[in-house]
Design brief:
Elements lengths: L2 E4 L3 H11 L5 H19 L5 E7 L4 E7 L3 E7 L6 H7 L4 E2 L2 E5 L6 E6 L9 E5 L2 E2 L3 H13 L3 E9 L1 H10 L4 E7 L2 E2 L5 E2 L5 H6 L4
Parallel strand pairs: 1-11, 4-5, 4-6, 4-8, 8-10, 9-10, 10-11
Antiparallel strand pairs: 2-3, 6-7, 12-13
Helix pairs in contact: 1-2, 2-3
The structure holds 1-O-pyrophosphono-5-O-phosphono-alpha-D-ribofuranose.
Length: 209
């Protein structure tokens, strides 16, 4: 069974409300995605391994810590791109491997259009980044690519999820850890999350038209 962590925190709920509001402009929308990404990252990185690092403070020598594992940030374009900078701020040495999927409007199936993953030498820990987990199709495709690459630990970070997407990932990828700020009620007939926040990619990049 997948490990699912739903952040339940006053600040998360307030920033989520900003994202949900129809009146929120792209600047504020991006800022809120960034803040929530930082809070998700805090939760999702709590078990990263560290090693001793001897240092010298202005007062004396001591043993500090440094990250031990190779970390990969895997944003699913487009919307996942907005989660990269907050994560890089916390883990500056991360590698960023973009994946390009869009959802076919008729079938709601993910269509793959970009990936430059190497054939070998996988990262130790992959954080798949996508603000929205709806049917779970895009996340499932991303997770399969991580497995095919040989990644040992895979963590999905989403801001808003539908029960249908969570259930799919639980069934298909029981080893994957899922972190989300909230699980909404359901998907509507167009496979949009209800009550949701609309299309995150369009709201981030100001392409609502
Ligand atoms: C949205 C979203 C996810 C996907 C979620 O992307 O950002 O990637 O749909 O849906 P799923 O769980 O049913 O796969 P979209 O297809 O709108 O592409 P975009 O980010 O380029 O706008």
């Amino acid at each position: 069974m997948s490990e699912i962590r739903i952040l339940d925190h006053p600040l998360v709920n307030c920033h989520l409300t900003t994202l949900r509001k129809k009146s929120t402009n792209p600047v504020e929308f991006r800022r809120s995605v960034g803040r929530l990404s930082t809070l998700l990252a805090y939760a999702a990185t709590s078990d990263l391994r560290t090693a001793e690092l001897p240092i010298e403070t202005p007062i004396q020598k001591m043993i500090g810590r440094q990250l031990l594992q190779r970390i990969g940030l895997i944003p699913i374009m487009r919307a996942g791109i907005a989660m990269v900078e907050p994560m890089l701020d916390l883990i500056p040495g991360s590698e960023v491997w973009h994946l390009g999927f869009y959802r076919d409007e008729e079938t709601a199936q993910p269509v793959h259009y970009y990936s430059k993953l190497p054939d070998s030498s996988p990262v130790d820990v992959a954080f798949i980044l996508d603000p929205m987990l709806a049917t779970g199709g895009s996340a499932a495709l991303a997770c399969q690519q991580m497995i095919d690459w040989g990644v040992g630990t895979i963590k999905m970070l989403s801001i808003i999820a539908a029960p249908e997407g969570i259930e799919r990932l639980e069934n298909e990828f029981p080893e994957m850890e899922i972190y989300t700020c909230v699980v909404d009620e359901r998907l509507n007939e167009n496979k949009f999350i209800v009550p949701g926040l609309g299309d995150a990619g369009d709201r981030i990049f100001n392409t609502t038209g």
